[in-house]
Write a structure and sequence with these properties.
10 strands; elongated; Endonuclease, Chain A
């Protein structure tokens, strides 16, 4: 009997199953039908855990009891099972949104409004997609080429685009052309060294301070540094980090948005 793929177990757990439920559902999918005793022996689960997991799977509609003596179960086709799990998640999301809207948040909030929210690496990907999905008029982005992948589905929309791409890759211009296919916009490509030098020059006059600033900047992971602004009303700033994980700030504060855009535009006075 083949081993159960760990990544498949993890995927089903992310869709809401417990680990034991995921393992049992996968095993039943491979075996087609199986007695409870066979499942216990194959998976090494305890008897109570196995019976409880089967009860929950049956409750979710993922397995069917086809024989009482001996107790034998069958899994529904995995295509249908995945649809059921996904629909459950979507329904839970709608219900949660409805309930969140009824919360009396004002009683618990401080008088000052939250200036920004901090997002983790997983939240960054979702936030970028959400912002680009809901944009109505304009996009400003300063970023390395790795973020261009998010624009592949936007080409058919009539949006005002302003992109500053910092890259040392000679293929970046071709990548821009391939994604936007002649679409009008303000596109600038600047070498990484020139970008860092531009920031240093804007901040300091003395050469020793410029040098110290640039040396500090090079310590960061510039491959993640990104500023995304949609409709001049919401901003996502992915900070340069030395670690392998990314952190971002999300805000709708007008002053922060304006100052951030000016800061990135100012590194390009000779590039435009």
């Amino acid at each position: 009997m083949p081993k159960i793929p760990r990544d498949l177990v993890k995927s089903l757990m992310e869709l809401g199953l417990l680990e034991s439920e995921a393992k049992i559902y996968i095993t039943l999918s491979m075996m087609n039908t199986a007695e409870v005793k066979k499942l216990i022996n194959f998976l090494g689960l305890s008897k109570p855990n196995t019976y409880e997991s089967l009860r929950l799977l049956e409750e979710k509609g993922l397995v069917i009891l086809i024989n009482n003596r001996p107790m034998t179960y069958q899994a529904i086709p995995h295509e249908l099972g995945l649809e059921i799990l996904l629909e459950t998640h979507l329904n839970a999301k709608k219900q949660a949104e409805k309930l969140f809207s009824t919360l009396d948040q004002e009683k618990f909030r401080e008088k000052s409004r939250t200036l920004w929210y901090v997002l983790s690496e997983k939240g960054i990907d979702h936030k970028i997609k959400d912002m680009l999905k809901n944009v109505r008029q304009s996009i400003f982005m300063a970023a390395p080429p790795k973020y261009l992948k998010y624009f592949k589905k936007l080409n058919e929309r009539d949006l005002k685009l302003e992109l500053i791409i910092y890259s040392d890759n000679k293929d970046t211009e071709d990548e821009l052309e391939k994604i936007f296919q002649g679409k009008e916009g303000d596109f600038s490509i600047i070498a990484t060294d020139k970008m860092i030098n531009g920031f240093a020059t804007k901040h300091y006059d003395k050469e020793e301070l410029k040098t110290a600033y640039k040396e500090a900047f090079y310590e960061f992971g510039l491959e993640d540094l990104m500023l995304l602004v949609v409709d001049d009303s919401e901003m996502l700033y992915v900070m340069p980090m030395t670690e392998n994980s990314s952190t971002a700030i999300n805000t709708k504060n007008k002053a922060l948005i304006t100052l951030s855009k000016i800061g990135f535009r100012d590194i390009l006075p000779q590039q435009r």
